[in-house]
Amino acid sequence: MADFVLNSAANGQELKRAAVAITVVARDEDDAFGRPGDAAFLLTRRAPKLRAHAGQLALPGGRVDAGETPQQAALRELDEELGLALDESHILGTLDDYPTRSGYLIAPVVLWAPLEAVITPNPAEVAHLFRIPLAELRRPESPEIFSIPESDRPVIRLPTPMVNGHINAPTAAMLYQFREVALEGRATRVDHFDQPVWAWR
After folding, report:
1. CB count, 10 Å around CB of 114?
2. Which of 28, 48, 72, 195 is the most exposed place for a label (fewest CB within 10 A)?
3. Between 177 and 49, whose confidence is greater?
4. What digits encode the pLDDT tens for the residues 117-134?
C-alpha cells in the first residue's frame, strides 16, 4: 500500500466524517473456508438493538469525534466494539474516502493485529464476529456489479458463503478496494459504486 496515492473526496465538508477498520488477523478456525493461521479480516454483524443499521454486516467503525483523525477514530472504535487495543504502529495505510447515501464520508483504515492480540467483542454492539479469509475477496465470481432502477450508478456486492449471503456496499466497496490495492497492487477507485436502496437510510 506504500505506493497508493490517496484520493480524498472533494465534497467531504458536506458529509459527516466516519472511519472503519479493515483489520488483518490470523484465523483461529479450522473449517471449509480455511485453516488456523490463514490471513483474514474482521467483519461484524451488528447487534440487533442498535439504533442504526442493526443486524447488518459491517467493519468496526463509527463517527470521527471532534479533534480526532480518521486513524484515531478507527483505532478507538476497534477497541470499543471488539476490545482490540492497537496503536498507530499497527496502521498499514488508509484507502479512499467513500461517501454514503446516509450522509457519511467513511475513511477505511487498514491495520494488522499480532497473533497474540486478544479480541473480546462487545455484545452491546456486536452480535457475531467473523474472521473472513482474505482469499474470499478473490473469489472468481467476486465482485457482483449490477444496476438498479433507482440509481444511474452501478451497485457492488461481494458474494460471501461464509456469511450465507453477500457483503453489500458501502462495506463491499471498501473491501473491494482493499483487495485491489493491498492484494493485487492495482489503484482501483470505488466511490462511483452505489449501495442497495435499503442501505440508503
Report:
1. 9
2. 48
3. 177
4. 999 999 999 999 999 999
pLDDT in tens, 20-30: 999 999 998 89
Q: What angle do CA 26, 31, 32 make, to 5 degrees?
A: 115
Q: Give the whole-angstrom CA distance, residue 183 versus residue 111.
A: 14
Instruction: Work out the average pLDDT over 169-198.
Output: 96
Mean pLDDT of the chain, nearest integer: 92
Rounded CA-CA distance 84/34 in Å is 23
**DSSP string covering 89-154:** GGEEEE---EE-TTSEEEEEEEEE--TT------TTTEEEEEEEEGGGGG-TT--EEE--TT-SS-
The whole-angstrom separation of Cα 56 and Cα 166 is: 11
Q: What is the DSSP letter of 66?
A: T
pLDDT band at 7 (very low <50, low <70, confident <90, very high): confident
- Cα–Cα distance between 158 and 176 in angstroms, integer? 8
Which residues, 6+ apart, have CB-to-CB distance to 19 below 8 Å?
A: 61, 62, 64, 70, 71, 73, 74, 77, 106, 107, 108, 109
Q: Residue-wise over 149-180: b if at least 16 C-beta within 10 A, else e?
A: eeeeeebbbbbbebbeebbbbbbbbbbbbbbb
- Three-state SS for 158? strand
Calculate the CA 155 to chain-centre distance.
16
